[in-house]
Amino acid sequence: MVKTLKLALGALAFAYAQKPRADVQNAYEQFLKDFGKHYDEVEKQARFVAFAENYEYIERENAQ
């Protein structure tokens, strides 16, 4: 079950992580540092996907 979840999260992360914007990547790294988050690489990439989607959503909303 855990292995399947990691594979699914890895595929999702790969789909998004082709070329992340530098500002989103920097914000994510700062978030990890500020809140003391530590993940293995698969989970880190999967969580980045969610972070980036939220980040971009907030940018769109703030632009209105």
UniProtKB/TrEMBL annotation:
Domain Cathepsin propeptide inhibitor: 28-62
Gene3D superfamilies the record matches: 1.10.287.2250
Entries under InterPro entries matching the protein: Papain-like_cys_pep_sf, Prot_inhib_I29
Cleavable signal peptide: 1-17
Keywords: Signal
Record-given protein name: Xylem cysteine proteinase 1
